[in-house]
Structures are given as C-alpha cells and as structure tokens.
Design brief:
- The chain is an alpha/beta fold.
- The chain contains twelve helices and eleven strands.
- It has helices at about 1-15, 30-40, 70-75, 80-100, 105-125, 135-140, 150-160, 170-180, 215-220, 225-230, 270-280, 290-300; strands spanning about 25, 45-50, 60, 65, 165-170, 190-195, 195, 205, 235-240, 255-265, 280-285.
- A seven-stranded mixed β-sheet has the order 1-11-10-9-2-5-6, sandwiched between helices.
- Helix 1 (about 1-15) crosses helix 2 (about 30-40).
- It is globular, with a radius of gyration of 19 Å.
- The two termini are about 30 Å apart.
C-alpha cells in the first residue's frame, strides 16, 4: 500500500503537480491515479463534465466576504422589497444550517429543503420581477466565477467536451452570470429552476418541478434525449460543493469511470471526514479552478 501511495504521489508531482497543493486532500490517492489513467486511456472524446454551480463554479468568498449564490443575487437586488428581503433572510437562517448539518440524514433534510425553496419561490413571484432587469441585477452583483473559469470553459469548448451544470439555483440568473463572463459556449447545458414570465415579461411562476439539492439527477433525467447524445461519454468528471451533489451523475448510462472533486468551503473541521469519505479529491478553502483545470489539461493531453 505504501508503495502504491508513493507511486501515486510521484506520478502527481510529475504529471499533475497541482494535486500536491496544500489545499488538496485525498483519502485514496492510488484510486485517483487509477481513475485518471483509465480516463486518459479511453480518450478525452469519452469525457463529460457534470458540475454544480453555486460555490462550485462560483466563488464562495472574496477578500473575506461571502459571494452571492444565484438566489442571493436576486434576494439582494433592487427588484426585491425590503420586507421580502427580510423574509428570505429568515428562511436562509432557518434552513441553511439544516442543509449543511452533516449529522442529519438526507431523508430528514429533503422535505425541509423542498419547503425552503417552495416558500422562497412563492415570495419571489409576489415581487412581480421583470425579465428585462435580470441582466442589470447580475451586472451590479458581487457574483464571481472562480479564478481560472475562462480556461475551464474555453478548453472544454475547444475539445468538444460537454459541460452539464445542475443547479438548485435560478437558471435565468445562472445563465446570465456565464453569459456576462463571456463563456456561455454551445457545449454548456444547464438544468435548473427557470422563471416563467407572462407576455409582458413579468414573473408569474417557476417552470416545472422544483429542482433542489437532493434531486438534481431527476431534473436531468427528464431530458432523456440529451442523455442519449452523451452515451458515448461514459467517463465523468464531477464537481460539487455539497454531499447532495454526489448523485448528479446518476442519470449517466453505462458509466465507466467517475472522478468526484468536492469543494469544501465552509465548516471544514466538522465536514472534512464526510467529504473525504464521499469525494475522490477534496479541495479545502480553494477559491480557484486550478485543480480541475490541471486534470482537464491532463485528460486532453494539453500543457
């Protein structure tokens, strides 16, 4: 075992030195090494990337200040009244501690997460938000994609590797963040909660079933035509920041390899072990995409 670990460490140091960064933790480096070698052997034309959005592709914090999620961008905007902001804040203070509580089971959390976002969406609909103001709200927000986003998005596009983004956030806001960053390429597909506007461009409802942290895979499965197209890509690079993100690839048929990379942004001491048990690579308080980028460059044989 020691020999295997040493071999993996030597390989990473030589081929993917970013995996030896101080922010990188692995329970089983040898397994990571084997998955990577299997994926390289299969070729980058068999790879797809499945990622969460908030706090995974976007930053968790910048200069010590929390960055907004898709919902926060709207919550903190001029499109929401002060009374509504207060109600949304109360919902966050009630339900967010439950979402990140590693001592509670998913079965226990699930109905509470549905309750949270159903209430939040109902409050937003009452605000009669105008579609034409969403771009302005995103532009004025503190939303930031992680450092290195340009390389990740552009490289995946250049190599025709699909990027599927599954998010319990708001698809309209999410797409606008990517669009304004100049990286909303044709290979990017988003599965999220979308607003339903009336003919005058005013929010009246949210479309379809609620997509929340624990059912993202179901949202993807509804789009079976897209998954048919991806059947020739049985090797998955999964990026997430919560234990709920681990099931995002469950809709992938005939999967051969999956490498799971988890961003551990918050409550590190109490959550680290559960992340190490669940993700192949855990990135502790790392606000960059340096490691996913290095892995993607390795998989595509790029320098």
């Amino acid at each position: 075992m020691i020999l295997n670990l040493n071999r993996a460490a030597t390989h990473f140091k030589k081929m993917i030195p970013q995996l030896t960064n101080s922010s990188v933790c692995m329970r089983d480096p040898q397994r990571v090494h084997e998955i990577l070698e299997s994926m390289v052997k299969a070729g980058s034309n068999t790879v797809q990337v499945i990622s969460d959005f908030d706090m995974t592709l976007t930053r968790f914090a910048y200069n010590g200040k929390r960055c907004p999620t898709c919902h926060n961008i709207l919550d903190n905007s001029k499109l929401i009244s002060n009374d509504c902001k207060e109600e949304l804040k109360q919902l966050l203070n009630t339900y967010y501690p439950i979402e990140i509580d590693s001592s509670r089971s998913i079965a226990d959390k699930l109905p509470l997460m549905v309750e949270w976002w159903t209430k939040a969406h109902k409050l937003m609909v009452q605000q009669e938000i105008r579609k034409d103001l969403l771009a302005v709200v995103v532009r004025e927000s503190d939303a930031m994609l992680r450092e290195g986003y340009q390389l990740l998005f552009d490289h995946l596009y250049e190599h025709s590797i699909p990027l599927l983004i599954f998010s319990a956030g708001i698809g309209d806001i999410l797409e606008e963040v990517i669009r304004q960053a100049g990286v909303f390429h044709p290979n990017v597909k988003v599965f999220s909660n979308y607003m339903d506007f009336d003919e005058s461009g005013v929010l009246r409802a949210f479309k379809g079933e609620l997509i929340h942290i624990y059912n993202k895979r179901e949202g993807a499965l509804l789009n079976t035509g897209h998954f048919q197209e991806l059947r020739t890509r049985p090797n998955v690079l999964l990026l997430g920041d919560s234990l709920g993100d681990l099931t995002m690839a469950d809709g992938v048929q005939d999967m051969e390899n999956i490498l799971k990379i988890g961003f551990l942004n918050d409550k590190v001491d109490e959550r680290k072990q559960s992340y190490l048990d669940s993700y192949d690579i855990v990135l502790v308080k790392d606000e960059t995409l340096e490691v996913p980028n290095a892995i993607m460059l390795y998989l595509t044989g790029s320098k």
